[in-house]
Specification:
This protein has one domain: HUPs (Rossmann fold, 3-Layer(aba) Sandwich). It contains six helices and five strands; from the N terminus they run βαβααβαβααβ. A five-stranded parallel beta sheet has the order 3-2-1-4-5, with helices on both faces. The longest helix has 24 residues.
């Protein structure tokens, strides 16, 4: 059997990305593994309300980062809930799939568990798929969780 000690779980804080948490927690409990939960913020996030708010671009980005770190902490708490699992929070800035793959290599992750939005057709063509790119470039196995019908 495989010896899985480090599980990497990317999240964008969407309901769909949280569906990977159940699998990660279950696997971590069974294999006595630790979980690293990672969120990647774009280097230049869209700043739609910059002119209306009177804030500078730096202030808006700082606010977005604070909010993302808060959500990351909440997600880690959810994963730890009622378990003895060690959960490490990781915040990165950059290109999502590149940072996920890079971090997986840094920590010698045994597996990446990632949810996909399940987009197809033109939406998939235009936006691409983070999960697809992680699969393509990762050197460790990737478990992709598809959304359930009600999600």
């Amino acid at each position: 059997m495989f010896d899985i000690k480090i599980i990497l779980v990317p999240t964008d804080f969407s309901k769909i990305s949280y569906s990977a948490f159940e699998y990660a927690r279950d696997l971590a409990e069974r294999m006595d593994s630790e979980i690293h939960i990672i969120h990647v913020m774009e280097k230049s996030p869209p700043l739609l309300s910059a002119n209306k708010s009177g804030l500078t671009e730096e202030e808006i980005v700082a606010g977005l980062e604070i909010e993302a770190r808060k959500k990351l902490s909440e997600a880690a708490s959810f994963l730890k809930e009622d378990s003895g699992i060690l959960v490490t929070e990781v915040f990165r800035t950059g290109n999502d799939y590149e940072e996920i793959v890079k971090y997986a290599k840094e920590i010698n992750s045994d597996i990446i568990i990632i949810a996909t939005h399940g987009r197809t057709g033109i939406l998939h063509t235009l936006m691409g798929s983070v999960a697809e790119k992680v699969i393509r470039f990762s050197k460790c196995p990737v478990l992709v969780i598809s959304p359930k019908e009600e999600e």
